[in-house]
Design a protein that fits this description.
By secondary structure, this protein is an alpha/beta fold. It has helices spanning 46-49, 77-90, 103-114, 130-136, 140-145, 147-151, 157-177, 186-196, 201-210, 267-270, 272-283, and strands at 7-13, 16-23, 28-32, 54-58, 96-101, 119-125, 229-234, 255-260. It has one domain: Rossmann fold, CATH 3.40.50. It is 37% helix and 18% strand. α2 crosses α3. GO terms for molecular function: epoxide hydrolase activity.
Length: 285
């Protein structure tokens, strides 16, 4: 499902070239994907919201057709936030509606705190507020669910495991975690495998995790976020427990949460119509 009306383009910001897909005109809606995805994870949202906005779904640094710096030090939150700031300005906007899932959501949380003037509305899918995630990682239940993060700290072995048997682990991540297995066609799985197979991509994707415990995301105190925020949460996320959302209102002044039962971590791909409806309602479209 690749729409012919989608435009592929590149922009150089913060010293690296980022690839993005765009459709529509108007105010900017910027979409940030998670691991192990790329812009394609927003395929069900791009055409829907292009009716109202200029939608830009970017490949984060290290992913798919974006540049892939080799140094591990290139994959830290400060650099991710500079990428997003430069992207918004490079597209000649002052602010955006920022939408993020998984790692893209973590970047979106941090960016909204650092640059609230550049975020009109924040929409977060299946990633907790950094303070709540940090709390969760001190509990046995969430530590067990996040055990893959500790495996990813190792050099070269995670790459070998993910490449083996034609990227079978990647297919398992999508289809294994999904409640509705039909949410991912074989063509979807192949698109994700092909993106991960690009030279340097796997190591770059894993380097996000290899810096995570030293990063400021888990090593700072969080104040009250003033940006109006919508959280959408698939309740059957096996990687991130629903309880990580409880108490988020202590950190966000204007918060709405929409839970989707019988839905996994891959919420915008597994329940696209409901996700789109919740976002439309929230934005008053």
């Amino acid at each position: 499902m690749i729409e012919t009306s989608w435009k592929h383009d590149y922009i150089t910001t913060n010293g690296i070239k980022l690839h993005y897909v765009t459709q529509g005109e108007g105010a900017l809606m910027l979409m940030l994907h998670g691991f192990p995805e790329f812009w394609y994870s927003w395929r069900h949202q791009i055409p829907e919201f292009a009716k109202y906005f200029k939608v830009v779904a970017v490949d984060l640094r290290g992913y798919n057709d974006s540049e892939k710096p080799q140094e591990k030090s290139a994959y830290v939150m400060d650099e991710f936030m500079k990428d997003i700031q430069g992207l918004i300005k490079g597209l000649e906007y002052e602010k955006c509606i920022l939408v993020g899932h998984d790692w893209g959501g973590a970047i979106a949380w941090c960016f909204a705190y650092a640059h609230p003037e550049m975020v009109e509305r924040l929409i977060i899918l299946n990633i907790p507020h950094p303070a709540k995630f940090s709390e969760g990682l001190r509990t046995p239940g969430q530590l067990l669910k996040s055990s893959y993060m500790f495996l990813f700290q190792l050099p070269w072995l995670p790459e070998l495991l993910m490449q083996s048997l034609d990227y079978q682990l990647l297919e398992n991540a999508f289809k294994g975690m999904a409640v509705n297995k039909n949410a991912f066609s074989q063509a979807d799985i192949e698109a994700y495998k092909n993106a991960a197979a690009k030279r340097g991509a796997l190591t770059a994707m894993l380097n996000y995790y290899r810096n995570i415990f030293q990063d400021k995301m888990f090593n700072k105190s969080w104040g009250i976020l003033e940006v109006p925020t919508l959280m959408i949460w698939g309740e059957k996320d096996t990687a991130l427990g629903k309880e990580l959302t409880y108490g988020t209102e202590a950190y966000v002044r204007d918060l709405q949460i929409k839970y989707i039962p019988d839905c996994s971590h891959w919420v915008q791909q597994e329940q696209p119509e409901l996700v789109n409806q919740y976002i439309q309602d929230y934005l008053g479209l």
